[in-house]
Amino acid sequence: MNETQTQSYNHHIYENTMECLVKEEIEKQLKNYPKTVIKFINKTEIEAYALNRLPALYASSEQGREKQKEIGQQKYQKQISLAVSQALVTVRENPYTESKSIASLSGIEVKYQEARQALQKLQIFLTHTQLLNNSSQEITWDNLVSVVHQALNKLYWKQENPNLELPNHLKEDTVNPDWNSHYLY
Q: In tens digits, what is the pLDDT along the chain, a chain of 185 residues?
């Protein structure tokens, strides 16, 4: 394998669909427990116990995920239900309260959280500097370019026209998609 193939291979994303099925079953079974008991149940321990007794169902695409989920529900639902029931009994009887848990965030999850934090910091900054028209509007990856574009236009206008009121198109909550009608190109 050459370096490019190795890099491509190392960034391949897949998931064990059985994890999703087990989580769903845990939630289903916990509906029968009193809330006072549920708060003391370590769901991660339940999941790990049950998953160690079930086959893996890996998928690397949305279509594969749906197919594996269907297989899991049709072929393994009884096993999933039994494994979760056993896990609930075993973990409640023998909780590992003193064991230190493994960090649960994968590299992708860490990067996702960092990206979300960056968006939140940008939102705070743009609100604080009054460059965000609607402070209740959440900045997302879908609207990031538009929000920053409008904030830069607003900043440019304020610098060029310090004594004038902002024009209406820079006060609006939505951004005009016709970028050429604005000041930055």
A: 444 444 444 455 889 999 999 999 999 999 998 888 888 888 889 999 999 999 999 999 989 999 999 999 999 999 999 999 999 999 887 765 555 666 556 677 778 888 888 888 888 888 888 888 666 678 888 888 988 888 888 888 778 887 777 666 666 654 444 444 444 43
Q: Cα separations (Å) of 81 from 54, 63, 72, 84, 91?
A: 10, 24, 11, 5, 15
pTM over 0.70: no
Nearest alpha carbon to residue 82 among 9, 145, 142, 29: 29
Rounded Cα gap, residues 42 and 183, in angstroms: 55
In the block, which residue shows the tokens 């669909």? 17
DSSP conformation class of 2: -
